[in-house]
Design brief:
The complex is a heterotrimer of chains A (about 290), B (about 260) and C (about 240). By secondary structure, chain A is α+β, with helices and mostly antiparallel strands. In chain A, about 30% of the residues lie in helices and about 30% in strands. The chains are: A alpha+beta (about 290), B alpha+beta (about 260), C alpha+beta (about 240). Strand 12 of chain A pairs antiparallel with strand 9 of chain B. Chain C: InterPro entries: ExoRNase_PH_dom1, ExoRNase_PH_dom2, ExoRNase_PH_dom2_sf, PNPase/RNase_PH_dom_sf, Ribosomal_Su5_D2-typ_SF, RNase_PH.
Chain lengths: ~290, ~260, ~240
């Protein structure tokens, strides 16, 4: 927990009310975002995102698996978050599990769309190799290395960056296998397929402190929040997921206002993130 | 349960969710398809509540919405564990679990971590935790049968059980979910509808204060649609709260007699 | 299997007495009191140090010295095949203990009675020698946190395959089942604080292999010293001295 004195609390709240926060930002300004791709060579794709002191790593691993019988034409994606004890001593042992589950669920809700797959950032049917028999299972593993607030937005951005860094090997299916036989496959070492990541939404968390909302809150600011709403918005401006945190109740009209503010902010974030990812990819190719 | 509501069928037949061939339950081109149980799009299942289902608990409630049946018991406020640090407000501990026979496929009967934390987040804003410092309130929810919209039923039922236990709250918490199927919004979806949904929306709110304590959205939504969905759910919540309130009143009047 | 080719080259093209490329960086975790990243070839670990601070669990408090605690964890993506192990399996508990004992031996614990120092090491990529990499990272992180130490403890491993002593085994060489000697070494005091070996070796060869690992430790110590000097210079520069 953050230990803040009464004076510090007033300072933070007062600053937010006057639209100049403790680190000089305005209410709706993000901290500088630093993107690094390809940090884990063993994975199919990886990225590290730093927003101020918040530092997260996201990796994508693809494995061949079998589609579930109810949805034979779809691959599977799962997202796991792990909070490293390096981020805070309270994550030691099983201490980080609760937060890890909460973040994993929120990310799944924001990025994987509804049950039928509508609104998902990743097109699950593109992961199928042979219908009903072979598909790609994407395992997205995230690690929180250092935490200074706004983990969900950072993780969402890291997943987007990791997916655009991901190459899935092209698979050749041996002809002749029929019926219930599991067909033989040949995984190419050279040819890789890239993901189309333009549909993947970004997550914007609005933290309500006093009567105002701020984006990209630090840990100190988060300790002063009454409630927060994380909204994932895609390029079309549609909402792909929403999670509320914090116990305090909100008036429905405020919720709707927060949604419209988040949509506005998401456009800027999306553009900024895209250019950062492109720059990181270009930098990686050169080196 | 002691008093069966008149609305539920008297004969029992297993829900037909384990059919071999699954056909889509609606056709997008068809404008006026009917829901599997014959309800209108904006019509909730009949709700039945009863308090005092578990004698050993300080408060309990049973809820039945169609095939969804849950039982919630509340223990406490009782002394927090010794290892816990001093806290000048009370603690809330929530746990949601499924019976092994709740789902069509035999389950594990284990705790549902995701629902437990959602239940906690929905209730903590409504309970006046300042009234019982240094103590813990435990809320245990058990889903006897899962028939869709499990979480909203659990949340509404839990707030009723808390009220039955005499724990101070700002207001009752009512919860309603809806599914988006194609262009249509379907309120209070059953299991089948949930498995085909393009998107889902869940609201928990305190109707008399008109405050939303928890809100989750999945799937792709445009802003007008969210508006419409929220309005529908809030409306249903306030109606649901009336039913919950009358159930509480009924319980107190019978105990006085 | 042939681990050393007739030309005297190893699987990854190194000479038998050659170490993988090492890289270190101080201050990777902003919120920690001290932190460092240490890379040995493809092995990459992060260490973070919190403390000295108040003891969290009063019953563990020691009245005449500091309590040193350590937790080792591996990221899900750190190995070639994706693994999902529960936290605190036997291997990580053992490594946590080894790191704790090694670091405790070089920290001047008697200067900080009734306090606690936490060392957290997180493996990002595992390619053999994680134990050594963790100890090296922890040393740097402790130094960054300004915790008084007798000396910089460094660690390196060596093995014996195809009748050749090999320095700094990678994952493939490590899993060959040959002897694997991990040494923790205090370079200034010229003392060994950690010595582990699995499998068996004749005593005269063991001496050679251990000596090789010690040489490796000395080389790492020199590198770590350079990194720290560089870091201190930068701090000086930023302060404008």
């Amino acid at each position: 927990m953050v230990g803040l004195s009464l004076g510090e609390k007033h300072f933070i709240q007062g600053g937010i009310a006057q639209d100049i926060r403790s680190d000089g930002r305005k209410r709706l300004t993000y901290r500088p975002i630093n993107v690094e791709t390809g940090v884990i060579p063993q994975a199919n794709g990886s990225a590290r995102i730093r927003m101020g002191a918040t530092d997260v790593i996201s990796t994508v691993k693809a494995e061949l698996g079998k589609p579930i019988s109810l949805q034979p034409d779809k691959g599977k994606v799962s997202i796991y978050v792990d909070c490293s004890p390096t981020a805070a001593p309270m994550f030691e042992g099983r201490g980080g599990e609760e937060l890890s589950t909460e973040l994993s669920v929120a990310l799944q809700r924001s990025l994987l769309g509804g049950k039928s797959g509508a609104g998902a950032g990743i097109d699950l049917s593109s992961l199928v190799v042979v219908e009903g028999k072979i598909c790609w299972d994407l395992y997205i593993d995230c690690l929180v290395v250092c935490s200074d607030g706004n983990l969900l937005d950072a993780l969402g951005a890291a997943i987007k960056a990791a997916l655009s860094n991901t190459g899935i090997p092209r698979v050749q299916v041996a002809a002749g296998a029929s019926g219930d036989e599991q067909p033989e496959v040949d995984i190419s070492d050279e040819e890789f397929l890239q993901f189309d990541t333009s549909d993947i939404p970004v997550i914007v968390t609005l933290t309500k402190v006093g009567r105002h909302y701020i984006v990209d809150a630090t840990t100190e600011e988060e300790s002063q929040m009454s409630s927060a709403i994380s909204i994932s918005v895609n390029r079309k401006g549609h909402i792909c997921g929403l999670t509320k945190r914090g116990g305090a109740g909100l008036d429905p009209s405020i919720v709707l206002d927060m949604i419209s503010v988040a949509k506005h902010v998401s456009e800027q974030l999306m553009n900024k993130l895209d250019s950062e990812i492109a720059a990181a990819e270009a930098g990686e190719d050169e080196s | 349960m002691a008093g069966k509501p008149g609305t539920t069928p008297t004969t029992y037949s297993p829900s037909p969710t384990n059919q071999k061939i699954r056909r889509p339950i609606f056709n997008e081109n068809e404008v006026d398809w009917v829901r599997p149980d014959g309800r209108g799009f904006h019509q909730c299942r009949p709700a039945f509540f009863r308090t005092g289902a578990v004698n050993a608990a300080s408060g309990s409630a049973y809820a039945e919405f169609g095939n969804t049946k849950v039982i919630v018991s509340v223990f406490g406020p009782r002394e927090s564990k010794k290892a816990m640090m001093y806290s000048d407000i009370g603690r809330l501990n929530c746990s949601v679990s499924y019976t092994t026979f709740a789902t069509p496929a035999r389950g594990q009967g284990s705790e549902h971590k995701d629902f437990s934390s959602m239940l906690h987040k929905s209730l903590e804003g409504a309970i006046i935790l300042e009234t019982f410092p240094k103590t813990t309130v435990d809320v245990f929810a058990l889903v006897l049968e899962s028939g869709g919209s499990d979480l909203p039923v659990v949340i509404s039922c839990a707030s009723l059980a808390l009220a039955d236990a005499g724990i101070l709250m700002h207001d009752l918490v009512a919860s309603v979910s809806l599914s988006c199927l194609g262009k249509n919004l379907v309120i209070d979806p059953i299991l089948e509808e949930e498995s085909y949904q393009d998107g889902g929306l869940l609201i928990t709110c305190m109707p008399s204060r008109y405050e939303v304590t928890q809100l989750t959205v999945t799937g792709e939504w445009s802003t007008p649609k969210i508006n419409e969905g929220m309005q529908l759910c809030l409306d249903a919540c306030s109606k649901l709260a009336k039913i919950m309130r009358s159930c509480l009143k009924e319980a107190t009047s019978t105990s006085q007699e | 299997m042939e681990f050393v080719s007739p030309e005297g080259l190893r699987l990854d093209g190194r000479r038998p007495m050659e170490m993988r490329q090492i890289r270190a960086e101080i201050g990777a975790v902003t919120k920690a009191d001290g932190s460092a990243v240490f890379e040995m070839g493809n092995t990459k670990v992060i260490a973070a140090v919190y403390g000295p601070r108040e003891v969290q669990n009063r019953s563990q408090q020691i009245n005449d010295q500091a309590l040193v605690r350590c937790e080792y964890s591996m990221a899900n993506f750190s190995t070639g095949d994706r693994m999902r192990k529960p936290k605190g399996d036997r291997r990580s508990t053992e490594i946590s203990l080894v790191i704790r004992q090694t670091m405790e031996a070089c920290i001047l614990t008697h200067l900080m009675p009734r306090s606690q120092i936490d060392i957290f090491v997180q493996v990002l990529q595992a390619d053999g020698g994680t134990r050594s990499a963790c100890i090296n990272a922890a040393t740097l992180a402790l130094a960054d946190a300004g915790i008084p130490m007798r000396d910089l403890v460094t660690s390196c491993s060596s093995g014996y395959l195809n009748s050749t002593p090999l320095l700094d085994l990678n994952y493939v060489e490590d899993s060959a089942g040959g002897p694997d000697v991990t040494v923790g070494f205090l370079p200034k005091l010229d003392k060994v604080t950690l010595l582990q070996m699995d499998s068996k070796l004749p005593i005269d060869i063991f001496e050679n292999v251990m000596q090789l690992a010690i040489e490796g430790c000395k080389a790492i110590a020199n590198y770590i010293r350079e990194i720290m000097l560089e870091n201190t210079k930068q701090l000086e520069y930023r302060r404008g001295i």
